[in-house]
Please model this.
Amino acid sequence: MSRIVYVNGRFLPYAEAAIPIMDRGFLFADGIYEVSAVLNGRLVDNAAHLARLDRSLREIGITNPFDQEGWTALEEGLVARNSLKEGLVYMQVTRGVHERDFPFPPAGTPPTVVMFTQEKSVAANPLAERGAKVISVEDLRWKRRDIKSVALLAQVLAKQQAAAAGANEAWMHEDGFVTEGGSSTAFIITEDGRIVTRPLSTAILPGITRQAVIRLAAEAGLTIEERPFSLDEALRAAEAFFTSASALVMPVVEIDGQRVGGGQPGPHTRRLRGLYLEMATA
Ligand code: PDD
Model:
């Protein structure tokens, strides 16, 4: 079966889908994206992802082309057309196509909307059994990381550095504190079982999985501390993990070649992953 993608109002075979070279997403990274997980053929926590998409678009002055129902119908249409059981739905909206010029194109220029699915082992991910390796890199990004911009060059470089070092994720740091992962939210768990993650601000993306994990942890009676933590504290932590739509709750067993928590996925992290999977497949 050929892969079906969505471009500007049409479901098309991937090979027939194309975007003009004057698209502002291509020329300026002038656009927003969003990623929702699919488990058992169903979208996970999708309303929260669409709310963040709406907020990011508003922050950069692109009119959201669809409401929640509209987006959901397109996502479900794409999942059905690709018979996707487990993986991701990717959505991107750019400021549209216009002769290259920095200021916004004329009002009424339609945004470009692109969507596709990716098959991926999200729940049955063998890395979650082994635990992930992380390296630390300086956070080279701009000052509005709360916006889910398609400008991801700093993350591409960070994650390539991680891959070249045989690691699975890069934890970015600034002023001595971890900001977040290249494409995930960073957490540690202290010896006395407190879950620590950086508070929301313009310094990090407000992770949708982060929000769900904080809620699930609180419901399970665990203590959450929203405060910055240093790399040094992470190295001394009892457990560490990161969260994202694609990784869900991913144990970290090594940072910069040093073992965390004895080099095994920790019990609190395993429990949180289990609780998240329960919620996502309920
Ligand atoms: N990345 N921080 C950054 C910088 C991210 O890119 C992501 C997600 C997250 C986690 O957000 P969420 O829990 O809402 O997925 C945090 C997506 C998955 C990606 O770029 O593929």
